[in-house]
Amino acid sequence: MSALKRKEAREVVVGLLFETEFKTEENSSEIFAISTENREIPEDEYIKAAYFGVCENREKIDELIGANSNGWKTHRLTRLSRSVMRLAVYEMLFCEDIPYSVSINEAIELTKKFDDPKAKAFVNGVLNSIKSALEAEGKTKND
Known about the structure:
Blueprint: H1 6-22, H2 28-38, H3 45-56, H4 58-67, H5 79-94, H6 100-114, H7 119-136
């Protein structure tokens, strides 16, 4: 399989994160190995970095999502919305080359494609709130 475009790679990562939601007895390395073999996911540095980055920083990412979810606890969000937002927040925090607006827009597109139509506004609101919080802390990226 040829190299994936970033948009396609994000879909793969969200799929892996979503799958991880159900496999609580397995660690992220096992889930990644089985999933890449079964679904023939190509070797892709972004996919590996993003998936393992979200898994390793999940507590920090979930804390940010929870703090900006207007009273919603992270565990009460749908698994898909949670997976999409975790990826977007990971990019916002750890991928210096990806502008906030790109992470947010891509999350909205993933939500529109895979989640309930009503989830789009919620995901957008939470991610824009996180963006504002990061910018208030002086963490900016060129858009």
